[in-house]
Amino acid sequence: MLGLFVLAAVLLWLNHQTATRFSPTISAEALIRAAWLILLQFMPVLAGAFLGAPLVARELENGTARLAWTQEAGRIRWLVAEVVPVTAVLAVAAAAIGLELRWLLARPAWTGPGTWSPARFDLRPLPFAGWVTLGICLGVFLGAAIRRTVPAMAATLGCYAALLYVTSLWWRMHYLPPLHRPLPHVLVGPEYSYGYGIPLTSGPGDYVLSAAPGRPDGRLLTSAQLDHPASWFRLHHIRLWVTYQPGSRFGLFQVIEFGWLIVLATILMTVAAVLIRRRAA
User: What pLDDT does residue 260 have?
Assistant: First the structure.
């Protein structure tokens, strides 16, 4: 697993060196960049399934953990010695890769989904390190609970995927209450047609959760009112009401996500320690 992190770091470094020399317009390069992002996205769950889950489950399944528990090192000390060094090394490696990737994603060659998109937000230094830490601790916890290597690996993959899915598609955008404000309705076309748009901003930008025409007091239009001509919209001063997360919260959301990931990882490790401590030596 550490080799995968090293490989990804080397690939990112090579692209860092070549990006300033060549115009990245070849489609093959775009495919390679996409493959790197996908590889990085899989690293936390692979770390949990193939490193965290077998770390304890294999010892319990084979009975070799009992020998360690009868030595001078106690069960908790044995668990810490097994998990903490590996987790710390991979978390630091993930943060370093995230820093390098942040530089690459800022280049024109890496244009693609917005900064708020899960494919990019998850790979920021703090969230990436947090997800790697959680992946390993989740694997350790399930390994201690199930005590079988292969089932623990499968459970780690499933639980991690479910948590990442819920976080990326819903929970992340509600770390803080979204803002709600109107935008002028200015895009009026010929023959009673109308439309609206959201201005683009530099930097992380705003993440728009919803947008709908409404009255100045915030009441949204009904389906029947949407069929009115453009003159009716101008007469009633219709605005576009946008619900969004401002770009100024982008860094704060990374800190929030890293915080709850570390808290959850700590809880899982604590429960795993309790389970191991209760096992008969």
Answer: 97
Q: Amino acid identity, residue 11?
A: L
Tell me, what's the pLDDT at 114? 57
Q: Please name every residue paired with 220 in a beta bridge, in sequence order, or none if there are none.
A: 214
117-140: b (≥16 Cβ within 10 Å) or e: ebebbbbbbbbbbbbbbbbbbbbb
Report the distance separating Cα 101 and Cα 9, nearest Å. 9
CA 129/CA 149 separation, integer angstroms: 24
91 backbone φψ class: left, alpha, beta (φ>0; ψ -120 to 50)? alpha
Per the CB < 8 A criterion, the answer to whether 132 and 91 are in contact is yes
Say whether pTM exceeds 0.90.
no
Q: Are 105 and 120 in contact (CB under 8 A)?
A: yes
